[in-house]
């Protein structure tokens, strides 16, 4: 009798564990779906007279933006191992011709990227600088710009310097005043010659709960008031090694 009771108790505990695991899975799935589409807002309060005066004393700065794994992630239909979960719908699909071959790119936007671009375009002149081919990079930039005219200046692979199989980006070719130009890029190798003019960001592939772009807004809000961005960003050198 006791043995039967123990066996029944084990079976009940096993069933309860499976039900609980199923419940947790469904809850996390629904939470991710809700979190991905929740409205976000960064409160931009009116500037005080002192802040307006301070801002009038400095030149408007340039924020250089990388594309792949910084603002978006994409994969094409010839990839054997896609980096996103099968069945995840892309935000948009690009059809381009590369070496006379049509290729479809399935592009996923980093969470909150539209809100991020809307906000920082009020503070900075935005410049796209990608190591991708122009036919692809221009199409992605057009989609992100969405007719707003905030991503007019663009640089592509042909503007990079090839070094040991990687591409570096020369910020001085964008602006000769390094006091007021800096780059947001997931690849430290891309800005190896300008570490004091860079903000590192973790590579993004598919996490719908990512908030890296939102977390940068307070820093970017404050950085526009500086005379020299390097006076602040040079303190982030340890983060380059981390990424």
From TrEMBL:
<protein>
    <recommendedName>
        <fullName>CTD nuclear envelope phosphatase 1 homolog</fullName>
        <ecNumber>3.1.3.16</ecNumber>
    </recommendedName>
</protein>
<keyword id="KW-0378">Hydrolase</keyword>
<dbReference type="InterPro" id="IPR023214">
    <property type="entry name" value="HAD_sf"/>
</dbReference>
<keyword id="KW-1133">Transmembrane helix</keyword>
<comment type="function">
    <text>Serine/threonine protein phosphatase that may dephosphorylate and activate lipin-like phosphatases. Lipins are phosphatidate phosphatases that catalyze the conversion of phosphatidic acid to diacylglycerol and control the metabolism of fatty acids at different levels. May indirectly modulate the lipid composition of nuclear and/or endoplasmic reticulum membranes and be required for proper nuclear membrane morphology and/or dynamics. May also indirectly regulate the production of lipid droplets and triacylglycerol.</text>
</comment>
<dbReference type="GO" id="GO:0004722">
    <property type="term" value="F:protein serine/threonine phosphatase activity"/>
</dbReference>
<dbReference type="InterPro" id="IPR011948">
    <property type="entry name" value="Dullard_phosphatase"/>
</dbReference>
<dbReference type="InterPro" id="IPR050365">
    <property type="entry name" value="TIM50"/>
</dbReference>
<keyword id="KW-0904">Protein phosphatase</keyword>
<dbReference type="GO" id="GO:0044091">
    <property type="term" value="P:membrane biogenesis"/>
</dbReference>
<dbReference type="InterPro" id="IPR004274">
    <property type="entry name" value="FCP1_dom"/>
</dbReference>
<dbReference type="Pfam" id="PF03031">
    <property type="entry name" value="NIF"/>
</dbReference>
<comment type="similarity">
    <text>Belongs to the Dullard family.</text>
</comment>
<dbReference type="GO" id="GO:0071763">
    <property type="term" value="P:nuclear membrane organization"/>
</dbReference>
<feature type="domain" description="FCP1 homology">
    <location>
        <begin position="56"/>
        <end position="223"/>
    </location>
</feature>
<keyword id="KW-0472">Membrane</keyword>
<dbReference type="InterPro" id="IPR036412">
    <property type="entry name" value="HAD-like_sf"/>
</dbReference>
<keyword id="KW-0812">Transmembrane</keyword>
<dbReference type="GO" id="GO:0016020">
    <property type="term" value="C:membrane"/>
</dbReference>
């Amino acid at each position: 009798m006791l043995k039967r009771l123990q066996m029944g108790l084990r079976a009940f505990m096993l069933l309860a564990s499976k039900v609980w695991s199923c419940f947790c899975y469904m809850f996390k799935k629904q939470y991710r779906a809700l979190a991905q589409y929740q409205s976000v807002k960064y409160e931009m309060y009116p500037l005080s007279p002192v802040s307006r005066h301070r801002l009038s004393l400095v030149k408007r700065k340039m924020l250089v933006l990388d594309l792949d794994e910084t603002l978006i992630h994409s994969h094409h239909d010839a990839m054997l191992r896609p980096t996103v979960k099968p069945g995840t719908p892309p935000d948009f699909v690009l059809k381009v011709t590369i070496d006379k071959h049509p290729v479809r790119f399935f592009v996923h936007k980093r969470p909150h990227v539209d809100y991020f671009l809307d906000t920082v375009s009020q503070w900075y002149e935005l410049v796209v600088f990608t190591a991708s081919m122009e036919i692809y990079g221009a199409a992605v930039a057009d989609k992100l710009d969405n007719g707003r005219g905030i991503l007019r200046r663009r640089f592509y692979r042909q503007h990079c310097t090839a070094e040991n199989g990687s591409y570096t980006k020369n910020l001085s070719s964008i602006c000769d005043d390094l006091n007021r130009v800096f780059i947001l890029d997931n690849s430290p190798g891309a800005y190896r010659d300008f570490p004091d003019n860079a903000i590192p960001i973790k590579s993004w592939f598919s996490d719908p709960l990512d908030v890296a772009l939102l977390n940068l807004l307070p820093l970017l809000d404050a950085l526009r008031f500086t005379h020299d961005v390097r006076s602040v960003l040079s303190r982030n050198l340890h983060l380059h090694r981390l990424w």
